[in-house]
Amino acid sequence: MSSDPIIVSTISDDPLAADVAQYMGQTEEDISDIISIKNFANTEFCPRFMVGNSDFRPGHDGKPGVYVRDISQVGDSLHDRIVFIVSTCSGSITRNARAMRTFLVARAAKDNGAKAVVLVEPDLFYSAQDRGPRVEHGNPARSDLDRRKFDGQAFSSLLYCQLLNTAGVDCVLTVHNHSEAVAANFERNLTSTVFKRHFYNLIPSDLYAEFLIEHNILSHSNMDRGFVLCAPDKGAEPFVTQVFRSLQSRCDKCRTAENGCPAPDLLLMGKNRTGERSVDITIREDSPTALDAIRGRDVIVFDDMVRTGHTIAECCRYLKENGAARVLFMVTHFYSSPEVKDNLNDGAIDEIITTNTLPNILNRDMQGRLRHKMVILKIERWIANALNKDVLGNDKPCCSPAYTIDVSRKNPRWADLQKDI
């Protein structure tokens, strides 16, 4: 693919899109100068790319205006260009409205000659609706009870994939999507001309391991014992294992360098749902680390997303009750709902580390009472590195570190981390 991309968003002031554009080297033009984002009086959305358009020059001294370019160039202003659409759920525009905007921006790019359209959607829309009523709608091993839960509903994640195909999207890049059904939706289209070998799911295991080592997250009382990494349920186990291996490898190098980086341990938990909003947490029999081994140590609970916080709060309380010194929660997608903020405002959770895949979390009001224990890893550099290397095939030097840090002054870590903000 070409190394001369155009980065746009579906709104004029998307903060993540603007930062990705900067790290991709798009510094001469603001996103709002590249694409006109407008709505007609009837509320319909109408995007227009301003790059290389047939600019109209108004007349003067009684002479009529003229178009600068020849008519043969109309509809070809994006010829051989790659358009990156960075779409996040932030601000007042709903996910449904943003999805429609994405379809129209993608189609506008293709209708004006774009070589390829790449959707960068860190929190891929409709991923939670990854099942439907039929056997083929999701994991084939689903139970009859699970299928009954979706009777009458649409298999929305597949529809979203199909609509992206129709709109002209050639490639999708997302972050930490754990749904096998969603991946299968895109992979089913590998024989088509749209998503052929171009679905990237960035997993932040190395990113988290780097942060934990580089910023001395271990408490001073545990400098010789190392972290315990915890999977709160079976679904989180594959990701926690990836972080564990990455952290273990980095700790091995640290010990070789004789700067005392203790090896981590891995704790696997299980849950039994006892109600709509209640679960029982226990340690699994196959856990590599016994429960009594966490006494007096720092434990980090990992997950890909938090929507209600019930399971995480219960897990962290269980760990504290069994002797953990500090319990940290590290999560990629943080939905700042009133329910989440209420459940995670629990004394059993000492710190929350998340990313800005949902940029609203950077708003202190959205953090609420949790701001005193939240650290945000801004991942625009990491995304830009992946786009340059994996999508464009460039050998450009990577932005390092792969993240920047945002933290409230109310957080005790502010003084230590402000140099990275």
Overview of the structural elements:
The chain is of the alpha/beta class and 421 residues long. It has two domains: 5-202, Rossmann fold (3-Layer(aba) Sandwich), CATH 3.40.50.2020; 205-380 and 389-420, Rossmann fold. It contains 13 helices and 17 strands. The strands form four sheets. The chain has an eight-stranded mixed beta sheet with strand order 12-11-10-13-14-15-16-17, sandwiched between helices. Strands 1-6-7-8-9 form a five-stranded parallel beta sheet, sandwiched between helices. The chain has a two-stranded antiparallel sheet with strand order 2-3. Strand 15, helix 11 and strand 16 form a beta-alpha-beta unit. Helix 1 crosses helix 12, helix 3 (95-111) runs parallel beside helix 5 (156-167) and helix 7 (205-214) packs across helix 8 (237-256). The longest helix has 20 residues, at 237-256. The protein is globular. It starts with a strand and ends with a helix. The mean pLDDT is 87.
